[in-house]
Amino acid sequence: MPLSPLVACTPTVLIHSGARILVISIASNITVLLPRIPDKSKQASFMPADMISKLLEKAAVIPLDVAPHAKTGALRTSVLRNPNMGKLQKGYLFPEISIKHEAHMKKYPDAKVISLGIGDTTEPIPSVITSAMAEYALALSTPEGYQGYGPEQGQKSLRKAIAEQMYPNMGIKESEVFISDGAQCDIARLQMLFGSNVTIAVQDPTFPGYVDNGVIMGQTGHADESGKYAGIVYMRCAPENSFFPDLSSVPRTDVIFFCSPNNPTGHVASPAQLRELVAFARRNGSIIVFDAAYAWYVSEEGNKPRSIYEVPGAREVAIEISSFSKFAGFTGVRLGWAVVPDELRYADGSAVARDFDRVVCTCFNGASSVAQAGGLACVATEEGRDAVRRVVAVYKENARVLVDTFAALGKEVYGGADSPYVWVRFPGRKSWDVFAEILEKTHVITVPGSGFGPGGEGFVRVSAFNSRDRVIEAANRLKKFLA
């Protein structure tokens, strides 16, 4: 539009901003960018039209709704940012570690870095599983084998196999199993299901996804200096209390997130501990979200539970999530499941499963049919189950090597027996400092314990997910550094 009509618009506001001046004509919803003038005032002020006209010759005119950011000069919309995103602390833990890894490689481009950090599998997927996926994928190129959308809840054959093989004698029905693209996505969908008005409790330390999703959903306030968010109950799980919270001192919350085997500590809750947890939830009318992503690492010998549903009464108070990622190597394939029993009810008596089904159907078109073919090969046949047991055995032996290494060095070390994670204490040290020193001196990546919550300060998590040769090499480097 011509500039001359602008000067006649009233009222007009002049705002100084860095090297430019914004002339905002309220009547015409127009912002005019002017070169900076000598006036040093930072206050908004009204200017008569004749004064503004002298400045308009070199002005640029843009709509108000895409006014440039005062500092960067970049265009911006009128959409307000979700205020909950501003509550999140720094970046998500594992991308932050990746950034530090990249910086380390720039500093030491020839370094042979060994990652014992993020829990990403390294063993090849067994051929009995990949063959099933390949066969299914090839069939899609034929008229007889092509299939489009499948059920949002997952293929019935896979749901049935999971109910029968993963939950024997626990009363789980195939209709209660919801196939997904991984446990982490199910955490987000469950948080969406619960909404912003619920209160939550988490183990401390614990997987950060539970907390971060709660923050994004608006379930929390801001974090304090220790990293704890207002509105979240942190259940201390330390060596001193056998990695299980003192529930007598834990206030009631609507939802309790609980992971066993625990990420990051590697602790497996005992039958007595899970009975106590279920009883606590039943007394308080709470819902447990039980993360069993590492259940296949629990030794078959002994009496350690793999599922919350091994505890009588859990069906009325618990949802269980799990994943093919860590036992079948599906970190890239992406496949998981959630179990939502029919008996689980809201305060008004309505079924939680019905609402979760609605969330799944609205937000998710179902897991990849090719991935589900692989999942079926994992659990429906003895050949598949034996194959993944052998993969798990590799990582468990790696964990034993790491536990023995730290124990021989006199370190306080936990986990590793029924988990791919080893939890090592460094008294009096900050976790990020230990992480940085180990990376600098040994070129080995770990995970700082404080990234899993305030209760992880002074620890590092060491992952068993790597080849045997590289784990042994990392162990030798750590011995030289820590001896």
From TrEMBL:
Residues 112-476 form the Aminotransferase class I/classII large domain. One of its GO terms (biological process) is systemic acquired resistance, salicylic acid mediated signaling pathway. The keyword Transferase applies. CDD domains: AAT_like. Keywords: Aminotransferase, Pyridoxal phosphate, Transferase. Its cofactor is pyridoxal 5'-phosphate. GO terms for molecular function: pyridoxal phosphate binding; transaminase activity. NCBIfam families: DAPAT_plant. PANTHER family: AMINOTRANSFERASE. Belongs to the class-I pyridoxal-phosphate-dependent aminotransferase family. LL-diaminopimelate aminotransferase subfamily. This is Aminotransferase class I/classII large domain-containing protein. It comes from Eragrostis curvula.
